[in-house]
């Protein structure tokens, strides 16, 4: 098969949870530019409608559906809506994340909230969307974790800033997601579903100057990631070009941990 055909997502229906977020927009854009029909989903219905509308103005096939990942009934409504409107699902990019904890000493009630959304809710939506993909003959699930699920925090990045200590729940659930990827790759292979993970490093979002200085001097490429950086790996894992990649976690940190 020609490489252009291997990388094409023409005729594929792709769901991106958290598709209106920083990395979510890049993921959505990449999948749509590769020819996919992309659905973005999150709790904020107005935000995702506006985001999808902007993509459509640029000629991309992007749609919006609302979902509350912490609510099983909302996940089922999303699942049914995808079937009614699009008839199938080929690719699910599990990208949504909530960050209720603000630091090490934050109230443990916020850790509970985080686990409900980022652990229980995430497993719920993964199972339901995997069932949808299986019903159509198989496809690809791509989990978005973080390099923070692979390594402890580099506290020196925060020196000279008022950003505080990074929250523990984020490290906890991203580490779990990486190994859950390996579990699902084994369990779902019989349904012709490949499951992989991408663990990005820091994404530029106008962080304080001192943080940028601290961070970028540790990256061989001397910068944080931008929105385009994640597109290629996502399209690879979603398309036939990645048909023999399964159960992998790809670290995308510009060489920081090389």
Q: Layout of helices and strands, plus pairs?
A:
Layout: H1 3-6, E1 13-17, H2 22-33, E2 37-42, H3 45-57, E3 62-66, H4 72-86, E4 91-94, H5 108-135, E5 139-144, H6 168-187, E6 193-200, H7 209-216, H8 231-238, E7 249-252
Parallel strand pairs: 1-2, 1-4, 2-3, 4-5, 5-6, 6-7
Write structural notes for this entry.
The chain is of the alpha/beta class and 258 residues long. The protein has a single domain, classed as Rossmann fold (3-Layer(aba) Sandwich), CATH 3.40.50.720. The protein has 8 helices and 7 strands. It has a 7-stranded parallel β-sheet, sandwiched between helices. Strand 5, helix 6 and strand 6 form a beta-alpha-beta unit. Helix 2 crosses helix 8. The longest helix has 28 residues. The relative contact order is 0.15.
